[in-house]
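Following up on my earlier message about glycine. Here are the inputs again, as you asked, copied directly from the submission form:
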Amino acid sequence: MKILVVGKGGREHALALACSKSQLCTALYAAPGNPGMAKFATCVDISDSDIDALVTFAQENEIDLTVVGPEATLALGIVDAFQAKGLKIFGPTQAATQVESSKDFAKKIMAKYHIPTAAYQTFDQLESAKAYVLEQGAPIVIKEDGLKAGKGVTVAQTVPEALEALEIAFAIPNNKVVIEECLVGFEFSLISLVHNQTVIPLEVAQDHKAVHDGDKGANTGGMGSYSPVKKITPALKQAALDEVICPMVDAMQKEGVPFTGFLYGGLMQTKDGVKTIEFNARFGDPEAEVILPRLESDFVQAMLDVLEDKEVKLQWTNQVSHGVVMASTNYPASSTKGAKITIPEDLNGYVYHMGTKVVDGDLVTDGGRVLMVTNMADTLEEAFEKTYADVERIQCDELFYRHDIGRKDMD
Ligand code: AMP
Ligand code: GLY
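Thanks, got it. Here's what our run produced:
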């Protein structure tokens, strides 16, 4: 089969690598791909937002299956465009992508179908939003509507912090804001392969969203992750499926927006049970880089079977997978470009490229999150040591990283 992976980050690197290991894969393309993917896939110079060009490429090259990484590409309607031409693609339609692209859409469905989530209200006016914050007090969570690459959320510990976040959000014309109760608990990511009523859960991972050690500082797209997550027992995972994921899949079908693709549940285990923080309409990043290497069954076969509503039994290694993101100085506020990176050939683990490019033969930074350094081992502690030993050997003047990825699950 000829397979096309759309996107250029670490998640797409992991999706493509998993596809490349499939018995079914005879040719693998990435659009636009990245220097890490270029080692095992053919990178084609088409932007992940140029839907017309992607359709034409898939038609001319007789692509049998397209797998989409970024939410922005899904929100542009790539799945609708491919399906209109009879091209097989694994991902949600533009309408179903709203589960991520509109916090308000997701919250309304959760409320209607009693899917556990934080209490909330939506506002389109600064003054009424401010009045609500003053009435509720802190801590409180401010979420801008729309796609924000993980950066549109402020978990405000004080009222002035919440009010400032509202000022910033409403400086954008026609912005909507969801204001939520602040949940306390243990966060985890549960991603499933979904088609109509078929839900095939993958292994659980934990992301680290805050930029600094100890979960301090601004929210990012994610600074590191590991899988499996010891604290999320099989019983807790099953509860998350029964109470959140399956009811949401069912609800979307009942609402006339059935979901196909990777449904990402950002969940929190609280003292009152599992609650939904958010849904995403695609694989997590940096979750893909630690979950997919643990999959021993054929990833491409799994997607094809799910598309045909077949039950799929996935096999996983018991090994623990751990990864640390190396990001540009000042991420998430800004990103540097063009700083030279040297990666030794003999690292313990595997390096995913999140934001790199090759200029005049040198690998250089090209974005906020730049690399994800990963390792597998029998224990989280061992994988942690191996990853950080690798991270310290990567040379670049413009990168920083968190030092405590996975620590919380080690006690
Ligand atoms: P989101 O983009 O909705 O996943 O939010 C980013 C991060 O903010 C989450 O991963 C949580 O760490 C935090 N967060 C979001 N909503 C809440 C909430 N209601 N209570 C506590 N923390 C939250
Ligand atoms: N790691 C969080 C996300 O992919 O949204």
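One observation from looking it over: The CA atoms of residues 18 and 293 lie 7 Å apart. Hope that helps, and feel free to reply on this thread.
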